Amino acid sequence: MEPNVQQDQRIRLAFWIAGGLVAIGAVAPLVVGGGIHSRIAGVFIPFAIAAAALVINGLMYQQGRPLAVTLYFIAGLAIVYGILALLAVPLRLAVVGTCPAAPAHCPLGFEQPLTSGENNGLGVATFCGVLAILTGFYGLLLFYRRLTIGARRQPSAWPAQPPVQSTAAAPASAPPVEPPPIAPTPAAISEPALVTPAEPAPPPPAPDHAPSPRPVRRASPKRASIPPTPAAVEERKELPAPEEPKELPPPA
Questions:
Q1: Please, are residues 62 and 140 in contact by the beta-carbon 8 Å criterion?
Q2: What is the pLDDT, as a whole number, of residue 1?
Q3: 33-52: buried (b, 16+ CB within 10 Å) or exposed (e) per residue?
Q4: What are phi and psi of 112, to 5 degrees?
Q5: How many CB atoms lie within 10 A of CB 132?
Q6: Bridge partners, 98 (sequence order)
Q7: Are 126 and 90 in contact (CB under 8 A)?
Q8: How many angstroms separate the CA atoms of 33 and 38, rounded?
Q9: How far apart are CA 80 and CA 53, in angstroms?
């Protein structure tokens, strides 16, 4: 419980600090810039609306997210509008132009340049407005984080796992009942049953062992004898003996 209380205090303090910064930014142009008739005094109205929205948000943020987000959005929109209104003054002077020095005549439609007080008020208001937006966003972030952590810690209505039902032990199967033995009657004992002789079965038919006919072989045609060629006959004959050389006559 104590961490939640501390976090609630931080959220409320963040929204209130943001509202105080916006209030400072709304008053600074009036105090430093020359009062109500200064050219930057118009920032007071949007900054006052933003300060009121942030203070109310610090008191009523526990009503839910939609209310907190709506109030922060209104405050941020008012701050941005006030900052743009402040920055429009120097931008207009830079585009249109300023009046010359005091001895010269100021043309129609020209304005005097910004004074040091107006510059200081413009800077303080812009800085406080931006810082208030960031501080309010920090408080909104803490609020969302607290809701997320609370949703995680909240116990669920249904258990994560269904309860395990204990299965009852199956009853033991009863042993099969045997039928009681039937005692033979005296009539069955005295009169034996007549047994008729069974007729002999006919013998199976003898298998036919007739020899199977052999296949007839076809006579292969005889090859005709080929007479030898005359060249082969001549080769078979013996070659003639070589002639002996004649003897030379003796020398004279």
A1: no
A2: 47
A3: bbeeebbbbbbbebbbbbbb
A4: -75, 150
A5: 27
A6: 111
A7: no
A8: 6
A9: 14
HEC sequence for the chain: CHHHHHHHHHHHHHHHHHHHHHHHHHHHHHHHCCCCCCCCHHHHHHHHHHHHHHHHHHHHHHHCHHHHHHHHHHHHHHHHHHHHHHHHHHHHHHHHCECCCCCCCCCCCCECCCCHHHHHHHHHHHHHHHHHHHHHHHHHHHHHHHHHHHHHHCCCCCCCCCCCCCCCCCCCCCCCCCCCCCCCCHHHHHCCCCCCCCCCCCCCCCCCCCCCCCCCCCCCCCCCCCCCCHHHHHHHCCCCCCCCCCCCCCCC
Q: Is 247 exposed, middle or buried (0-12, 13-18, 19+ CB in 10 A)?
A: exposed
The pLDDT of residue 41 is 87
CA distance 121 to 31: 8
Nearest Cα residue to 136 out of 58, 83, 230, 202: 58
pLDDT, position 34: 75
Non-local (6+) Cβ contacts of 108 within 8 A are none
The total of other beta-carbon atoms located within 10 Å of residue 29's CB is 28
Q: What are the pLDDT tens digits along the chain (252 aa)?
A: 455 677 788 888 999 999 999 999 999 988 887 777 788 888 999 999 999 999 999 998 888 888 999 999 999 999 999 999 999 988 888 888 888 877 777 777 788 888 888 889 999 999 999 999 999 999 999 888 876 765 555 554 554 555 555 555 445 555 555 665 665 555 444 454 455 555 556 666 655 555 555 655 665 555 555 555 555 545 555 666 667 766 777 776
Structure tokens at 51: 């300060």
